[in-house]
């Protein structure tokens, strides 16, 4: 296999810095640098872009991003044990890697990034979905990023790209596809990681739409779909009871059947309903 850079193999880096994987930080490391370069390629041509990487760990994906020509990478890592290994990558790529130690849920690295920006991450499941929802729901659009290329458990990836009518369709699908074009671009078996997780993984690429699919306030839509899918087996009129005294009329005025279930409602229907509820000044 061709080498992607002149730095030591990841196994040596992990041994040298004592980076035994910690379950509490959701650490499953990618060890094959040809594979990390392939993942980096899913983010498109990086040569004119700054990349925000969240959770670089020992730096396998970081090295892939740099080898694929990213103009600059800003990498935010919570585990302080990883920082010296990441600084070695920075030293080998002068001016192209900025390492930020801390929790990505608390840090806003926006000031370090120059547009155009692409986001690439292999995060633990719970942090990954929380970050995804944050990236998808800023008040104004377009966001600070052009695309998100993110690793998830395969089952979560399927929920992000799901279409109405099936069990996988829910809040993540509505929020993701409302403002982005989302598709699964790679599948990874457990053996690609050390230690291997129990489930398969997949890379999802989300390209920001210039304009959302339909008009709605991000906060109102987000709260509405959370409520609608919280009781997904119920009819809309029951699941949304309490949002407005005349909820059945509001649902009908959005062009929806009050007896429909959330998983049958397309994104345009949720947007219309969010607007109808805003008009009634209902508090969600
Ligand atoms: N990117 C590396 C790779 O692909 O081999 C590591 C992936 S590992 C699944 C997840 C990484 O995210 C770990 O390095 C972990 O320490 C880091 N991490 C977990 N929670 C984080 C958080 N809240 N903020 C920043 N990094 C976090």
Write up what this structure looks like:
It is a single chain. This protein is an alpha/beta fold. The protein folds into 2 domains: 10-208, Rossmann fold, CATH 3.40.50; 218-283, rRNA adenine dimethylase, C-terminal domain (Helicase, Ruva Protein, domain 3, Orthogonal Bundle). It is 35% helix and 18% strand. The chain is built from 11 helices and 9 strands. A 7-stranded mixed sheet has the order 4-3-2-5-6-9-7, with helices on both faces. The chain has a two-stranded antiparallel sheet with strand order 1-8. α4 (83-92) links the parallel β3 and β4. α8 packs across α11 (267-279). The radius of gyration is 21 Å and the shape is elongated. S-adenosylmethionine is lined by residues 25-30, 54-57, 60-61, 76-79, 82, 103-105, 122-124, 127.
List keywords for this structure.
single chain; 284 residues; alpha/beta; Helicase, Ruva Protein, domain 3; seven-stranded mixed sheet; two-stranded antiparallel sheet; elongated; binds S-adenosylmethionine
> What bound compounds does this protein have?
S-adenosylmethionine
Structural class: alpha/beta
Intertermini distance: 55 Å
Kindly report the name of the CATH homologous superfamily of the largest domain.
Answer: Vaccinia Virus protein VP39
Quickly count the helices: 11
The number of strands is 9
Question: Per the principal axes of the C-alpha atoms, what is the gross shape?
Answer: elongated
The biggest sheet amounts to:
7 strands, mixed
Low-confidence stretches: none
Q: Helix proportion of residues, in percent?
A: 25-40%
The domain tally reads 2
Radius of gyration: 21 Å
Name of the top-level CATH class of the largest domain? Alpha Beta
Tell me the CATH topology of the largest domain. Rossmann fold
The CATH architecture of the largest domain can be named as: 3-Layer(aba) Sandwich
